[in-house]
């Protein structure tokens, strides 16, 4: 039996995500290789649409999750990219980074982990010295929920206890580690892994912490201030990429632990210990269009998925014959 010639991917994406991801260059390349993207009609039950070979989504909520479950019961061979229960783990900044401790890499001299962080649920906890005793200033304050909204991206660098008291829980308070003003963004699409360098928060010297008249500063304030004295080309070029083998192993480990196909993670290199890396953020279905050559990478990803699905179907059919 010959392999199926064409595949349909039903996509359920917010308008902004649809526009940024489904660019004409990706749509055309995918179509040339037998893959069409079909919009899911939100006005109709999902089970009444298709049938799709795969469903690509970045939606959440009980209703949507239930619709996906029903669709999979009706069409058990459909590929869901990605399972809602796996995505949900990334919506909380604590459970998001707990997975890093579950990854094992046996080779190489690099060490890795996640920054020390605690959850603050109530305002009075911001004055609890015992609760905060393991953290050293400066720290980063992030909203506990990481759902991609504007509020979830509202973060601050906090220099002292008075600055903490100005914030509103629930929050995650995370240690800030000087990392040379460079962040490494790693894009993953199943077996495909791509690491790129990006500008990050500048290092904070001890004397600046002690002399700071501001209790805290928002990330946007810091970005505006640092851009005036930050030569984007000179400083960024000084930061060598982490070893490719290490990044590949870390990406594979996270993919296995998370149960996700499409995600990216942010890594920093500790300025004090050059072979120590920290995973500081993980996102489901990120902005792949920011990655050079994303069209080919994603088209290959979809083609490989369907090829593996076809091979599995053939093996089942051969098994049934025996």
What features would you describe in this structure?
- With 322 residues, the protein is of the alpha/beta class.
- 35% of the residues lie in helices and 23% in strands.
- Strands 5-14-13-10-11 form a five-stranded mixed β-sheet.
- Strand 3, helix 3 and strand 4 form a beta-alpha-beta unit.
- Helix 2 (24-32) runs parallel beside helix 11.
- The longest helix is centred in the C-terminal third of the chain and has 28 residues, at 294-321.
- The protein starts with 6 loop residues before the first strand and ends with a helix.
- Mean pLDDT is 88; it is low at 227-236.
Structural class: alpha/beta
Could you state the order of secondary-structure elements as H and E?
EHHEEHEHHEEEEHEEEHEHHHEEH
Strand order of the largest sheet: 5-14-13-10-11
Q: Report how far apart the termini are.
A: 16 Å
The number of helices is: 11
What coarse outline follows from CA principal-axis ratios?
A: globular
Classify the helix fraction into a percent range.
Answer: 25-40%
Task: Provide the residue-averaged pLDDT.
Answer: 88
Strand content: 15-25%
Number of strands: 14
What is the C-alpha radius of gyration, as a whole number of Å?
22 Å
Main β-sheet description: 5 strands, mixed
List unreliable stretches of 5+ residues: 227-236
